[in-house]
Design a protein that fits this description.
17% strand, single chain, alpha+beta, 3-stranded antiparallel beta sheet, 5-stranded mixed beta sheet
């Protein structure tokens, strides 16, 4: 492709930068592959974006884009320049977010598994807040792991299965193990009173089993209890563990839950642990709760205090003391 000539102007000094709005417009056009899409993304008129592009080309004396029948494409020089501009903008965004995070010693952003957030965290986080009333905690329940590089959160509390694909921790992150919790079958007293008696794990195959997004959890639990053959599972799929637990609370069937998430409902009697005390129902764990944070912020005072409090609170909960 023959690059068109652009008449340039000499910047006032070699340290001067082109107008920042022109750089933002160029980055948006390059990423979104179109002037109109870039204009929509930045909330500008497309004529303004085009003017910014001309300004940048005049400033650098280099053609950065070519308009073709398929739309806007970057020239070879534009491709090289955008790679560097994009890295610089990412660095600016990261530096700004890092400054905001470090300047806020009383705000803590936490991502965690939805079931853990609903059934455990929301009921206990007030105890941590009472230790320091100035702390502002934001909890986001999500199954998605955060992008720590973009400072989406300060802390991630993740349940990592011990089966299936291995969990890969991102670069520059640290973690500690919070708990390995037993997975148990639970149901409401009303359901169990009206259902067939359960004396061994295989009896559960005659019951209405509640599933998340697939049958894997029940298949693994049954296999761990010696049931491998003739497993043809049915039952509703509710996609998330906190929904299967809620369905069990309302008498819809038997769910799998871990002792941490179900601790309050088991202690109150709203749920019954099926097979508790029976030799054939051995404790089985299929995952680990991890506490994850950026390595460079691992010992930030608020993150360190919360980590210590959380580990102690979980230990007490599993021991039945809280």
């Amino acid at each position: 492709m023959l690059e068109r000539k652009v008449k340039g102007v000499n910047p006032p000094s070699r340290k001067s930068l082109p107008p920042f709005e022109a750089l933002r417009a160029f980055d948006a056009v390059a990423r979104l592959k179109g002037v109109r899409r870039a204009a929509q993304s930045l909330g500008r008129d497309h004529a303004v974006i085009s003017r910014h592009l001309r300004t940048l080309e005049t400033w650098t004396g280099t053609a950065l884009i070519e308009r073709t029948s398929a739309g806007v494409v970057l020239t070879e020089a534009g491709i090289r320049y955008h790679e560097q501009v994009a890295m610089a903008l990412d660095l600016l965004a990261d530096a700004t977010m890092e400054l905001i995070r470090r300047g806020s010693e009383h705000r803590l952003h936490i991502w965690c598994m939805p079931g853990f957030a609903l059934h455990w965290m929301s009921r206990r986080v007030g105890a941590f807040e009472r230790l320091d009333p100035s702390v502002q905690i934001e909890i986001r329940p999500t199954d998605r792991s955060p992008d720590f590089g973009s400072h989406e959160t300060d802390i991630d509390i993740r349940f990592v299965p011990t089966y299936g694909s291995p969990f890969l921790l991102g670069p520059k992150l640290r973690h500690i193990e919070l708990a390995r919790v037993p997975i148990v079958a639970v149901a409401s007293p009303d359901y169990l009173a009206a259902a067939a008696r359960i004396e061994k794990p295989g009896d559960l195959l005659r019951h209405r089993l509640l599933h998340e997004d697939n049958f894997d959890s029940w298949v693994n639990w049954l296999s761990a209890h010696g049931i491998y053959d003739d497993i043809d599972l049915t039952g509703p799929k509710l996609w998330q563990g906190h929904l299967t637990l809620d369905a069990a609370l309302h008498g819809r069937g038997v769910a799998l839950a871990n002792h941490l998430v179900a601790s309050d409902d088991l202690a109150s009697g709203r749920l019954i642990e099926i097979g508790k005390g029976l030799e054939s129902f051995q404790p089985y764990s299929d995952g680990i709760y991890l506490f994850i944070a950026r390595g460079d912020r691992w010992d930030a005072p608020l993150i360190r205090r919360y980590r210590r409090w959380l580990k102690d609170a979980i230990a007490k909960s599993l021991s039945g003391k809280a």
